[in-house]
């Protein structure tokens, strides 16, 4: 549905030429939630702004449903843009307008009659869960409610694509989750294609079907979320995946264990889908002469199934440990020896 081909954007800054986006090629399917993750300065904002031509590519094409946006100008471009809406990190609401007046704004611009507008605003208020707050001003709303207004406004003209520019970065974790749940609901109910940019792997884990990792303007890795989580190829991707493990004091624990059990092996196990739901640890304990000490673990859901990470200390003869590791690998569990004491 969305095809980005050979996309480049260079800026002539005072400090010299900046390649903000460098040869990006992505194909996004209809109805999919596609996430682009990267650190600050990676080029995410520039890339997402090229999807609705807020930023014009220096080179390459952006096509939506086969239509090359980069060729459109004036009226045609404005019309095409109605199909590609955007939600912003800092909401970008009109502070002197109430919730319903903010949501009605894009309908006014599109020339929708006042009766139709009222009907549509009522639907949207319900859709985003803002009943009872219609007449409030943005300053009277919580961050999550403000973003709900932003989402309702973005959906007003029935777009085909919703672009989310760090839509939850200004929100606390609980509110972030409620907004992410809302985006999943909308994606399912309306079959809307969602493209989001973020620096948080939690956002990718919770709602995306596929992910692209961006570094220095380039997409260095992309794929289905669970595949990328289980088998990250690039160092930067591994760093992002490790955000999910919440290591806390794990390094201190590892040092301590290394001293106490010099014959042990600390390993990170990664489980996805079915392997996350099987009693693998008890199987290993039954079949092999090893002891397992669980150091930390977490299991969470993605759009495509369960994803679990477990750090354990394996103790026993080297041969038995190796056999246990081979057994786990043969059951589609990722095994990474993180410390060879
Ligand atoms: N209008 C501009 N003029 C000059 N340089 C720019 C411009 N916009 C972006 N850049 C540069 O392009 C690079 C990518 O910026 P971009 O904002 O797209 O990254 P990002 O991944 O979205 O980071 P952040 O989350 O911090 O916004 C940076 O080096 C930035 O300084």
Task: Give a quick summary of the entry.
With 341 residues, the protein is of the alpha/beta class. The chain has 12 helices and 14 strands. The protein is 37% helix and 31% strand.
How would you characterize this protein structure?
The chain is α/β, with parallel strands linked by helices. The chain has two domains: 2-243, Rossmann fold, CATH 3.40.50; 249-340, 2-Layer Sandwich (Alpha-Beta Plaits). 37% of the residues lie in helices and 31% in strands. It has helices at 44-50, 74-81, 99-109, 114-127, 143-155, 173-190, 201-207, 225-230, 235-243, 250-260, 280-287, 318-330, and strands at residues 2-13, 16-28, 33-37, 59-64, 67-68, 84-88, 161-165, 193-198, 210-215, 218-224, 265-272, 290-302, 305-316, 334-340. Strands 6-7-8-3-9-10 form a six-stranded mixed sheet, sandwiched between helices. Helix 5 runs parallel beside helix 6. The longest helix has 18 residues, at 173-190. The chain is elongated, with a radius of gyration of 24 Å. Adenosine-5'-triphosphate (ATP) binds at residues 11, 13, 18, 20, 38, 40-46.
């Amino acid at each position: 549905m969305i095809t980005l081909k050979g996309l480049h954007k260079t800026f002539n800054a005072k400090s010299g030429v900046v390649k903000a986006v460098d040869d990006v090629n992505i194909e996004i399917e209809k109805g999919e939630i596609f996430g682009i993750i990267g650190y600050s300065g990676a080029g995410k904002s520039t890339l997402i702004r090229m999807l609705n031509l807020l930023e014009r590519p220096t080179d390459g094409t952006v096509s939506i449903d086969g239509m090359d946006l980069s060729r459109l100008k004036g009226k045609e471009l404005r019309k095409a843009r109605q199909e590609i809406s955007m939600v912003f990190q800092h909401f970008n609401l009109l502070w002197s307008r109430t919730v319903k007046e903010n949501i009605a704004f894009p309908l006014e611009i599109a020339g929708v009659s006042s009766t139709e507008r009222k009907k549509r605003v009522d639907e949207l208020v319900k859709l985003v869960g803002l009943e009872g707050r219609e007449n409030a001003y943005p300053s009277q709303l919580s961050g999550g409610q403000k973003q709900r207004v932003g989402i309702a406004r973005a959906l007003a003209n029935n777009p085909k694509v919703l672009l989310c520019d760090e839509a939850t970065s200004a929100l606390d974790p609980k509110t972030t989750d409620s907004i992410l749940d809302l985006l999943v609901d909308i994606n399912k109910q309306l079959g809307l294609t969602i493209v989001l940019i973020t620096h948080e792997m939690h956002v990718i884990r919770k709602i995306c079907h596929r992910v692209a990792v961006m570094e220095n303007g380039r997409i260095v890795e992309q794929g289905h979320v669970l595949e990328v989580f289980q088998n990250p190829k690039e160092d930067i991707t591994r760093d992002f995946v490790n955000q999910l493990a919440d290591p806390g004091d794990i390094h201190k624990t590892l040092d301590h264990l290394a001293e106490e059990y010099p014959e042990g092996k600390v390993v990170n196990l990664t489980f996805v889908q079915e392997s996350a739901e099987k009693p693998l640890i008890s199987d290993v304990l039954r079949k092999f002469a090893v002891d397992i000490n669980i150091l930390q673990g977490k299991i969470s859901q993605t759009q495509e199934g369960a994803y679990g990470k477990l750090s354990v200390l394996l103790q026993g003869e080297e041969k038995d440990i190796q056999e246990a590791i081979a057994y786990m690998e043969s059951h589609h569990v990722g095994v990474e020896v993180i410390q060879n004491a």
